Amino acid sequence: MFAGISILIVLGIIFKFYRATKIIEDFAKIWSVNRLGLIISIVFTTLAFTLIMNLDGWISTVWNLLWLNLLIWNRTIRYIPLFILRFAIILIPFTLAIDALMGDIIFGESADLGISVGEDDIVNSHFVNPHDVSGYTRGDGTVVEGYYRDGDGNTDINLSKEDGGGYIRTNPDGDPSNNLNS
């Protein structure tokens, strides 16, 4: 993320595309010549920037924006490509906000998917809620410290059932009472 922002800032400094006054001048100049072209370019760039950012990442985004500007808009008005690149730099906070929102939705939904399997879906099995396992000593004398068992394999993050913790345990004998915390 920071690498992409750095690349855009460096490009902006090199080509002096970072000045807000220049963007306003470009907007006024293009608006007076071709209003429809400007509106289409802004809408298209916003959509393309957001889509490409979510699919490919920062480096590809910069490359694709430059490529789109050269191929599509350079033939209509020569000021539009420069305006779009300047405008795209302004879109970074907007795109990051969309990414944060989408990431929160995606990760929130994926946590729910971890507990969507019912006990009846797998024969001779049951769902085990996340729980604390007390420490114990093995037969060979090895001491095992207590831990929180939530089924994700990561002991650093303790998931509750609502966060997707828990797991399906199979019971070869079909009797869940033979297992702890059923």
Largest sheet: 2 strands, antiparallel
Using the alpha-carbon principal axes, give the shape.
elongated
Count of β-strands: 6
Element order: H for helix, E for strand: HHHHHEEEEEE
Strand order in space, largest sheet: 1-6
- Overall pLDDT: 62
CA radius of gyration: 27 Å
Description:
The longest helix has 34 residues, at 80-113. This protein has 182 residues and is mainly α. Strands 1-6 form a two-stranded antiparallel ribbon. It contains 5 helices and 6 strands; from the N terminus they run H-H-H-H-H-E-E-E-E-E-E. Helix 2 packs across helix 3 and helix 3 (35-56) runs antiparallel to helix 4 (58-71). It is elongated. The chain has 2 domains: 2-113, no CATH class; 119-171, no CATH class. The model is unreliable at 73-77 and 115-119 (pLDDT under 50). A hairpin with a 5-residue loop joins strand 3 (136-137) and strand 4. The chain has helices at 2-15, 20-33, 35-56, 58-71, 80-113; strands at 125-128, 131-133, 136-137, 143-144, 147-149, 167-170.
Task: Tell me the layout of helices and strands.
Blueprint: H1 2-15, H2 20-33, H3 35-56, H4 58-71, H5 80-113, E1 125-128, E2 131-133, E3 136-137, E4 143-144, E5 147-149, E6 167-170
Antiparallel strand pairs: 1-6, 2-5, 3-4
Helix pairs in contact: 2-3, 2-5, 3-4, 3-5, 4-5
Region (Disordered): 154-182
Organism: Sporosarcina thermotolerans
Protein name: DUF3892 domain-containing protein
